[in-house]
Amino acid sequence: MYLCFSVPIVSLGLFVAFIRYGDLPGITVFTALILNALIGFGLLWLACKAYNWVAARFGGIEVTIRDLP
To answer: Which of 16, 37, 39, 43 has its Cβ near the most Cβ atoms within 10 Å?
Structure first.
């Protein structure tokens, strides 16, 4: 699910780099996608750990949803 949103953003960046410089080595594309996956999943994991820590420490995180009048 994460990659469905981040890969198009990385692809757009690679496209802009190609238009700007006229060339885009394959290693650049490969490295960009690998770093995107590693850093992205790392940050997602860290955010989940922080969310769970806050929920455990303060008795849960609740969002109240109500209808508008």
So the answer is: 37
* Nearest-angstrom CA–CA distance, 36 and 31: 8
Q: What is the pTM of this model?
A: 0.63
CA distances from 29 to 8, 23, 24, 45, 56 (A): 12, 11, 8, 24, 40
**Predicted confidence (pLDDT) at residue 47 exceeds the cutoff of 80:** yes
Q: What whole-number distance in Å separates Cα of residue 23 and Cα of residue 20?
A: 8
CA-to-CA distance for 69 and 54, rounded, in angstroms? 32
DSSP element (H, E) containing 52: helix 26-58
Residue tagged 């995107």 (tokens): 36
